[in-house]
Design a protein that fits this description.
single chain, alpha/beta, N-terminal domain of TfIIb, six-stranded mixed beta sheet, globular, binds ligand MGD, binds iron/sulfur cluster, binds molybdenum atom
Amino acid sequence: MCQAQLATGAADRASYDEPMADPTNGTHTVNGICHHDCPDSCGWTVTVEGDGPQRVAVKMRGNPEHPYSYGELCPKVNRFLDRVYSPDRVLRPLRRTGPKGSGEFEPISWDEALDEIGSRLNAVIDEHGGEAVMPFSDAGNQSILATQGISSRLFHHIGATRLLRNICGPTVAAGAAMTNGTSLGGDAMDLEHAKLIILWATNTRLTNRHLWPVIEKARANGARLVVIDPIRTITAEEADWFVQPLPGTDTAMMLAMMHVIIRDDLLDHEWVEAHTLGLDELAEAVAAWTPARAAEQCGVDADVIERLAREYATTRPAAIRTLVGGEHHENGAMFYRTMACLPALTGAWRDRGGGFFRSVGTWQDELIDEAALTRPDLLAGREVRTLNMSRLGEILLDEEPPVRAMIVWNSNPLVIVPNAERVREGLDRDDLFTVVHEQFVTDTARYADIVLPATTHIEASDVSPAWGHLWMGWNEAAIEPLGEAVSNSECFRRIAGAMGLTEPSLFEDDLTVLRAALPAVDLDRLRADGWMKVPFPESGTPWANGGFPTASGRVELASDRLEAIGQPRVPTFVPPVEGPHGPDAARFPLQLMTPKHHTRFLNSSYSQLPKHGPAEGGPFVELDAVDAAARGLAEGDAARVFNDRASVEVPVKITERLRPGVASIPWGWWRDHHPDGKVANSLTNDTLTEWGGGVAYSDTLVEVERA
Ligand SMILES: Nc1nc2c(c(=O)[nH]1)N[C@H]1C(S)=C(S)[C@@H](COP(=O)(O)OP(=O)(O)OC[C@H]3O[C@@H](n4cnc5c(=O)[nH]c(N)nc54)[C@H](O)[C@@H]3O)O[C@H]1N2
Ligand SMILES: Nc1nc2c(c(=O)[nH]1)N[C@H]1C(S)=C(S)[C@@H](COP(=O)(O)OP(=O)(O)OC[C@H]3O[C@@H](n4cnc5c(=O)[nH]c(N)nc54)[C@H](O)[C@@H]3O)O[C@H]1N2
Ligand code: SF4
Ligand SMILES: [Mo]
């Protein structure tokens, strides 16, 4: 199917105005693809009744034909229609009437909203230049039009500040690319063929649930499952072997594994000789990293590290599967640069089901013509600054020249960005004009001057590339936009119009944008079939015979590129500054994790809905019994979790999931779910990773006391 959908001339049609399904009055079904920032990109089927604007979605279920999700959705999206038809949906433009953050708004017309937005943005640009305007978005809807359709073109055209969107994933990619020259890894569906699977810093059963059956299949065929995580997650509970390092110390463990592999001559000499560069330098660097030395850092017994190294090096196929958990550390890029060395030493890339498995979004990206979609040429040679989304608080408070207008979509920065009290202070600035395009009045939207109503994914058609599997999907709108909601691309066309801009590419219709973005894809076919597999080597072993796109064409165990940016040439463990050996550890002796934890939450989406947040209880801090007792705290006690950034009040939950010295506040709740209006991210570390532009949420130190 895949080849048939590629590279044929799509019919020259301007839009897909005519609905796919039978438009006559009556019940019919429409297929779509989940838009959430989740690796699974499930297929769904919506049952609709009625016609035109009267169409109502009455049922949504998983599409049993979908080649990855096979008919199952998840506890978040099983109730998606409650979200779509929630009485709290924003269905008209709103203008703020009370102070920022008060949540006091009045409904206004689109014309009024656009007049105000157009004149305020133009005034900012006239007075302070284009860079005074900043976009802020993430992957709240990760489809092509929703993330970049029109918006990137508009911001390029006005010369706005560019946003570096590195909060999730790019650091994994950057780390792996320093070793391999690419972040393209294996297809996780091939884990089925593995005999050893290491789920390393990923909570598959929670965050990537549709991959679990693949892992179960491999286990039924004799595979061993190892989970490496500082938290005994629901995935760890199911492992054959659970290894629990202290957070942020895995690089030390990997160095010791390489020490054992080299010391005991468990290398795949032929593969190493043919396809790697710098073994001698690496061997020298890891010589001192005995398992005993690593054990002191990661708190894992030396013999466990020995066994792990041997089992990894002597089992074939051996897979390392990760998503993003390891990148959220000060040394997060090195975590993945080092991890990527392991399969090279053992020749794991030779086997289907062996090697390094992460997001496959990069395979999908190969089909996207980024330049045609986002049009950086519209900058017309202007140099504009790029600011990192993870430093939003600092950007809004300290950046010079200041950001004076911000347009937010697809994200809820006040809850999701680290060091969130700084973000709140920044959003509170009187001289900041903020527009938020949203489905709900989120914590961030409460600080907006104007809130614009956004469609949900059953109200707008789009193409959804996946990052957990190789199927790119077509999402067909099942119903018309509710109220006055508009899709993201339409929202930006309207803003461009309100600013009086005339650049034609800002007004292209959705299908024209998608055609430009996906020049090799037959969109008619994609729409008719619902999904297509993106090109991936038939053998399932993209790097079995080397050919890595590094300067040397080899896996770079020693890297000139790293040296050139002032980083160690070879894998090196650098303990975090905000860690147990750092200067603040005496005052704040607990390491705070803020992981994804709730089956009914997707980041900060859903926690506000009645069948999601309340069903998960409320926020809490988990502590080991030893740490709780040392502070005189018992189950349910009100506690204050604090550091120099903030203090957050939450009840105590005594747990066996954590090691002593580690605390956890599962995140995702909005501010009014917390007794003192702070959130988990009020506490978290916004230090950027050493390279790769990520951020160190999980290197956060706190102390806990009775509230
Ligand atoms: N139910 C649910 N599913 C989701 C999401 C959600 O919010 N809820 N979010 C979606 C999104 S945006 C993403 S990016 C994916 C992320 O999917 P994952 O990467 O699987 O999820 P995370 O919770 O970010 O991190 C995974 C694990 O890494 C561990 N970890 C943290 N630091 C370290 C470390 O130093 N060493 C080791 N070994 N492990 C460490 C954490 O304890 C956590 O259990 O999930 C997606 N799926
Ligand atoms: N402490 C801590 N912080 C974290 C993480 C963590 O593990 N711990 N994980 C990080 C990660 S991996 C990620 S990806 C980020 C996620 O951060 P965000 O991407 O900001 O995630 P959400 O909180 O789900 O917010 C998405 C918003 O987009 C809106 N939305 C959905 N669809 C559309 C649409 O079509 N149009 C418009 N205009 N809006 C839409 C939703 O209503 C929602 O409010 O959080 C990061 N923050
Ligand atoms: S959130 Fe993830 S698991 Fe749930 S339906 Fe969407 S893609 Fe599937
Ligand atoms: Mo993410």
